[in-house]
Amino acid sequence: MYRPVAGQSNAYPNLQPVLTRPINWDLIRNQYDQMIKYATALRLGTAETEVILKRFSRSNIIHPTYQALAELGKVVKTIFLCDYLRHESLRQEINEGLNVVEQWNSANSFIFYGKNSEIAANRLEDQETAVLSLHLLQVCLVYINTLMMQQILSEKDWLKLMQKEDWRGLTPLTWAHINPYGTFRLDLDERLLIDPVAS
Length: 199
Description:
Elements: E1 2-3, E2 20-22, H1 25-30, H2 32-44, H3 49-56, H4 64-86, H5 88-111, H6 124-153, H7 156-161, H8 164-169
Parallel strand pairs: 1-2
């Protein structure tokens, strides 16, 4: 975290171990017009990101606008960390989101198990095929699990057992019942035994 201004070395006693230097507001102020110019060019598509980054790193001297953008990034990061420390609800929301992402990554590793779950090919066509195959597996997993959960919850006895915490934790990202190995026999004339009411 960065200090908002210089000369307050004893301020924020509880944050002293994580505080570092003050923000260089003069740098941001002096480069403000250039920062707006580059941001607008990117937003409107009149300049490409690669071209701007090459301009920023053309010589051994760091471009002042790049330095100002990095300084502004430190401001945004510090504001976010202050909000994170202040609001318990924000910490809980982020933690829940991270849990969902980790669950999703674990599911992907399970169903995309070939070649250590890595896209090892250099050819663009092979990479595209691998990613599209993963997307198909993801959609199938979520769709089938959703249908199965709907079927179970259509039974009144199971529905009565559901508590508030159970609804909050309900997710189609489960795979303990899936066997990714072996032979798969595809019959397009055969359908899963899912109650039509649930679908």
